[in-house]
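Entry 12.
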Amino acid sequence: MDNKSVIKTIGGNDLKLMIRSASNNILTRAGEVNDMNVFPVPDGDTGTNMSLTFSAAAESVVGLDDDASEADILETLARTALRNARGNSGVILSQILRGIKVGLGGTDSIDVSAVKRMACSARDTAYRAVMKPTEGTILTVIREMAEFAEQRFPEFEDVREFLKAILSEGEKSLERTPDILPVLKQAGVVDAGGCGVIVLLSGAVTALETGEAVALDESKKAETAKGTEVEDIDTANIKYSYCTEFIINKSAARSVTQFKASIKPKGDCMLVIDDDEVVKVHIHTNHPGFVIEQALKLGELTNLKIDNMKYQHNEIIGGAAKPEAEPPKKYGFVVVCSGSGMNELFESLNCDVIVQGGQTMNPSTQELLDAAETINAENIFILPNNKNIIMAAEQVDGLTDKHVIVIPTRNIPQGITALASFDEGSSPEENEVIMAETAEMVKCGQITYAARDSEADGLDISEGDIMGVIEGKVKVCGSDMGDVFESTAAELVDNDCGVISVYYGLDADKDEAERLAAALEKKYPDLDVNLNYGGQSVYFYIISAE
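Predicted 3D structure (tokens):
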């Protein structure tokens, strides 16, 4: 390639070479990028994530026909990057590549004007992908390069010189990131994701300028960035512990928007990228189980990866933290329940351990003891949520050095209300009183079926009948679900009631549940009616009034 001639457009072969060169450069310098990744995204593997994301996409381009168009090349690159994206940085990179592809539009001519469009589209797509964009990161570097391209493109005719100028602006932007994000200055590094983008673009520009790809040094070892010693950063600033990522192969009718809304309150650094048949998910959360349960409603999961970022961060700064070395928190919670929906509700209330159990599945004292022992807390509350489990729970305190308090909740709605009334600022004794009192204010009815013919509480019951059970007594019995449901609710509602909560079970029909809840709203217009999926077995519906 004649470096003195003006390059007005980038052809397919040149584009392939640039992609290969960018891939070689990020693979060779991944360790350098890793060493910069300390906080606030302490995965310690930004370079690895970006290099694996991009290199997999680059490999897919190699297999294209020689006459593949520029649009086909970028389409393949973006699509494969999404499916192979790792970590927050990898997902954002995949969106940058997607934006580049979209920015090209309906033309195969990559000239100065097209590069400007691609840079702006990459910026816009990357920012849309992040729920709460943070400046001083990869986003800032992409944005400032795009702004330069948008403002200065009329000055350029040579696409090579234009890309070199954009790269130079990106390098300046990267150097400014510690001034925008103080934690980078504290650690003595620039943003790792932004560095990865510059490494990629540098490799691509080198190939366009020299006609040769950057050499791949497979033996390259990670070097300490500029010889700087990384300061210890307080991991208490890491609000969400688990970096959770996976791909959903969509098969269900549930919308991705609903999925995003359901997991948004559970963490930060959330990325949910919908690309036709698959959805790429990345989130930092304290409840990865909840996120996975929600994802399964969309389809099957692949490429599942969950990392504890606090421990990873401590490994980066000089030694892995041991759980027992951490100071105990003041409070911990063990809850007994069953049903994925119920699990999610308790997880949202910051329960530490859920022991699967309930009616027909009473956990032993040992199981409850084992659960309590796993929690690093001074005071541990156990909510049995079933009258047949309370006694077993009360034995735990005498078998452990930890202070165990049993709140004698007899059903799941009582447990939910008790846990919701917990006050972090109050003493264990005060919380015990408050939680027990609020639980007692909850009245609960359960709708189930009769397993055999019998007579109970003055009612003749036939096998298969629908029953409404309140406080262990059969109050209502019949063959019509709607009638039994309405009558059971009526038994619970009184003049002091303000809220009715309905939890539909594993064997209940969602449409029916919505109709029944709507009927309650119509009958009790002054009350708040809440419908939740409980997923519990045995009971079609659990109704509570308080």
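Annotation: The radius of gyration is 29 Å. Residues 38-43, 221-236, 312-324 have pLDDT under 50 and may be disordered.
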